[in-house]
Amino acid sequence: MTLYSIAMSWNDTDLEESPIPRWSQIADRLRTDIESGSFKPGDVLPGEAEINKRFGVSRSTSRAALDYLETEGLIKRRSGVGSIVIEPRVERPLNQISSFSEDMRRRGLTPGYRTRSVKVVSASAAIALELQLQPGDDVVEIDRTMLADGMPLATSMTYLRPQLFEKSGIPTIEELDSGSLYERLQRDDIVFAGGDERIEAAMADTMTARILNVRQPAVVLICHRTSWMPDRQPVEYVVLHYLAERYSFHVKLIKA
């Protein structure tokens, strides 16, 4: 139970005399108002000066409360603007292979796609290594932006073995914009049995920042995934750039 009732606003009552630090009490109140929808994505939270005046706290106390909300991924602090409430993060388990559509629907979001190109290209040495091909072999390249409720969440560059499309043919841009690639493959009885994934953080380059509609500097999570069929043959290699402020990965640990 929190110290703060959801039916009240962040500034309705004075802070309590409690072992809980004052900055934590302030953060708790603001977090509750964010979670209840009193502050919506895009809204600007009360600034340090307003918080200081309301509770009679120091600037360092109000700053600590807002800094903590930023580390929780609830707000983004911008110089000259203030503390802006951002969309909640999408969390994906690391021990499951699932489509982007499945991830979004599971969280009550509407998935969408914006396809820039679909073409057959010659595999580079790096792609050939991932798919166990020879450099120069044909691969199908799909370049897309992944959307959640119409907002860009990630970029996706996918490379697939051409034999995956022997039954239904290579999908068109219109087909890829209208639905999940994994669901299309499943209709042809193609299901990935497993894969390897590695994730790293980096600063978004100019093109990625433009596609994701964020200002630089911006942090992205880069996911490299190779998926294989039941016979362990790798058939898909994809590089995704997720907007770090909107996406997180979850892994369950067990005691060795």
From TrEMBL:
GO terms for biological process: negative regulation of DNA-templated transcription. InterPro entries: Bact_HTH_transcr_reg (IPR050679), Chorismate_lyase_/UTRA_dom_sf (IPR028978), Tscrpt_reg_HTH_GntR (IPR000524), UTRA (IPR011663), WH-like_DNA-bd_sf (IPR036388), WH_DNA-bd_sf (IPR036390). CDD domains: WHTH_GntR. SUPFAM superfamilies: Chorismate lyase-like, Winged helix' DNA-binding domain. SMART domains: HTH_GNTR, UTRA. One of its GO terms (molecular function) is DNA-binding transcription factor activity. Keywords: DNA-binding, Transcription, Transcription regulation. Residues 20-88 form the HTH gntR-type domain. PROSITE patterns: HTH_GNTR. It comes from the Bacteria. This is GntR family transcriptional regulator.
